[in-house]
Amino acid sequence: MAESLFLSTKPLPFCPGCSHHLVVRHTAKALEQLGLKPLEVVLVTDIGCHGIVDPYFRTHTVHGLHGRSSALGAGIAAARKGGKVVVYLGDGGASIGLQHLIECARMNFPLTVLVLNNMLYGMTGGQPSSLTPCGFRTPLRPEGKLEPHYDLCRIVHSAGAEYVSRVNGTGDFSAALVEAFGIPGFSLVEVVETCTSYGLKFNPGQKTGEIAHNAGLEFGVWRNPGKSVFRLSLNTNRGSLFKESSIAVQWTAKLQNRLGILVGGSAGGRVQQAAEMLARASIASGLYATKKGTYPVTVGTGYSIAELILARQPIRYSGIEVPEVAVIVSPDGLSYSEGLLGEMKGGLLLIDEALNSPSTGAKVVTQPFVKTAGTKNAALLALLYLLKITETVPVAALLNEIKMASREGPEVASRLEKQLGQLEGKSDSNEVAKERD
Amino acid sequence: MVLIDGSRLIIESLARAGADVFVGYPITPANLLYRYAIMRFPAALSAPDEITTMQWLCGFSATGLLPVTATSFPGFALMLESINMAYMMELPVVVVLAQRLGPATGSATAGADGDLLLLRGTISGGHPLPVLAVNRLEDCWTIPPLALETAAMLRTPVVILTSKEMVMTQFSFELEKLSEVKPVNRRGCSCDDHYESYAPGDDLVPDFLPVGNSRHQVRLNASTHNRQGIIQHLSAEGLENTARLEKKITLNLSRYTRYHLDEENGADTLIVAWGNAALAAEEALERLRLRGEKVSLLLPNTLLPVPAEYPAIMSRYRRVFVVEENLSGHLRTVLFGTQGRNGVVGVNSLGKMITPEEIVAKVMGKNG
Ligand code: SF4
To answer: How many angstroms from the chain centroid is the CA of residue A160?
Structure first.
């Protein structure tokens, strides 16, 4: 055997006559022809007979999982500045990890995948793969595979790979490998082989080329125009996530202990934003706050529930056992919260006048929130109203948050302030929003 | 003071600690982690699925980068084999696992702490996987760098265990109180004339050289392998290497052991809580003490493998209440086995946060 820069001198571990010998030797020859050095090359192998070839290569070697070597190789290739990543994959591995090949083509990772298509899973005793031609016999399907196969090269080509070729594994296909390895982005070569131990025995007399031809698998090259190659670039100067400035304390809250507030509305009613603004307003008034949201998977429709806790002391537990205050502005919000409202033994329920009051132990106050402010701002108006009648947090603090929230904020705030003035004050409710001890 | 969620703290602290690259894919409740990482990490990209995510991460890791992803149970389940690969290849990877209510999709937007037993069995063969929980908002700042350094120095995947409640709820928080996060130490190699990919150091961890380096050949292998990284069947050297993987995680456990312990003199009752239940437990502790009860509290961050300190602490208490948001008592099983121990009581829930009052009632109850 001729000395190779890339291979040890030990005889390769494959069965006599197996095309894997040729794949390995042609790989070494092509890499050498391109002037690469062994430590510039990373060989990533998959599961299959080819996967035991690592010790024979003088390159870096990575032996991964069944069907995954192309994704693993993609990560290695994308993170390197140069050199060459070569991936070996069987037809079984290509079937298992088809998506990884499509991703390699889509992203144009800089690597070459050799698919050693011997038309069966050899290591596991001879099951057919998705690439095995219909009718081909394997040890575990001796009657012949009944299901159809697909043309891997055409799939990968249509996914955008710059260079795809299919070669007959019985000849000298090193020129195809030189070409594939020379592609800056993603390239794939499918080498059609016959496994001498399993394939030949069960399909006697059939030539590899004929099998491929009869299955409609043409030898040839498919190209796409070159596109930009994906390499990972690291930008270590990204700005901190703490860019937003601290909320300055500018107001004084009257709340002494802790208040759990449930806000129930509908998608599109800006419930979450309203609750978040109240949380910020509370912090600006010297309180601690937590806020979380619950909504169905269809975020554009159905209920939208926000839970707020405002407290004088730091808050640890962020759950609300039973709310002290509930603010309900839509039928969705009401039907979601009805059980919880029923559990309220006291406290305050602010509910839109168009809704039927549920049974609850809370003091119920109705107001035309939706009629006054529209569905989009009803939750905000209701929260402003809550502040007005309970004086837990200054109304001005929330109005200020509304002003700061967006470009239209000042206009929205002044409109809401006017609308708030139109709602009748119910000063006795101040007593109702009992704080929890 | 700012209004902030745990996701923002986790991603910012990981970035400051030197995490290089994030790969994300769509899953709730890890959405905010994904969003912030795209904004903050030196590099971040979107993958189509979980297996691709973990394979790309391992590829990055093999070249010397410190990679991170965030997921929830369904995604973690699909990553399982690839996490085993990272473990066997000895590649640093950090996975933020934001738990949610299962099985399957369960309630994607409801919190739960139901994946600890999965993590105990994640590595085939029963090898331990380092798992660090964030229990309090401050932990979102201090635990991720510890996870990253553990991954890098021990060359292993590490899981940061959290939940929807922590990563999606907004809390008022004083950023000024945060300690400085420094870039973590990375495993290197001073080997000049000789290198074997899996030759262990004194701490049983092999030195690291990236694949593709021009000094020495590197061989990484997910199958049973020898010190050179060459595939083995059942050779003594191969099995010894596989056994070493278990030993390196436990030998170095003290390097990543963290817990919060609030002990009261004379107490014979201990509350142990993690994840969603930790904050309720802290509040319950305060309420119990206000009522004159003598109670101690243990909030373990290092959940797996179990640090030797925990059995030592628990043995000092006649009654131990293990509070966790799952039905079967995952941590209780990890700590006490299926037989339990006299005086050990679980406080559990499904699909709702355990309230401080429930804990108080259990501790005050006569059956404790
Ligand atoms: S079993 Fe088949 S594929 Fe494997 S080495 Fe032998 S001939 Fe080649």
So the answer is: 22
Query: What are phi and psi for residue B217, nearest 5 degrees?
Result: -70, 135
Contact B282, B297 (CB under 8 A): yes
What residues pair up with A192 in beta bridges, in sequence order? A117, A168
Give pLDDT tens digits for B33-79.
999 999 999 999 999 999 999 999 999 999 999 999 999 999 999 99
**Two tokens, residue A88:** 């070996």
Mutate-to-test residue for ligand 1 from A19, A20, A201, A203, highest number of ligand atoms within 8 A of CB: A20
In chain A, the N- to C-terminal Cα span, in Å, equals 87
**Are B188 and B197 within 8 A, CB to CB?**
no
Interface of A with B in 298-357 (CB under 8 A): 315-319, 321
Under a CB-based contact definition with an 8 Å cutoff, are residues A124 and A184 in contact?
no
Query: What's the token pair of residue B284?
Result: 């319950």
d(CA B368, CA B366): 6
β-strand pairing of B131-133 with A163-168: unpaired
For position B367, what pLDDT does the model report? 47
Helix (H) or strand (E) holding A306: strand A303-311
Torsion of CA B214, B215, B220, B226, to 10 degrees: 150
Q: The sheet that has B344-348: what strands, in order across it? A: B259-262, B295-300, B269-273, B319-324, B344-348
SS3 percent helix, strand, coil of chain B, rounded to 5, is 40, 20, 40
Query: A352 - beta bridge partners?
Result: A367
Position B111 pLDDT exceeds 50: yes
Q: Find the residue in B nearest to A84 (Cα).
A: B212
> What is this structure's pTM?
0.96
% of chain B at pLDDT higher than 70: 99
| ipTM value greater than 0.95 | yes
Residue pair A251/A397 in contact (Cβ under 8 Å)? The answer is: yes
Over residues A25-37, mean pLDDT:
98
Q: Cα A45–A62–A5 angle (5° rounding)? A: 85
Q: Which of B20, B55, B216 sits opposite A72 (nearest CB)?
A: B55
Token reading at B338: 């299926």
Nearest CB among A63, A246, A290 relative to B223 is that of: A63
| Cα distances (angstroms) measured from residue A8 to each of A37, A333, B197, B322 | 14, 72, 18, 59
The DSSP-derived string for A359-412 is: P-SSEEEEE-HHHHHHHHHHHHHHHHHHHHHH-SS-HHHHHHHHHHHSTTHHHH
Measured distance CA(B147)–CA(B122) in Å, rounded: 17
Cα Rg of chain A, angstroms: 35
pLDDT digits (tens, 9 = 90+) for B275-293: 999 999 999 999 999 999 9
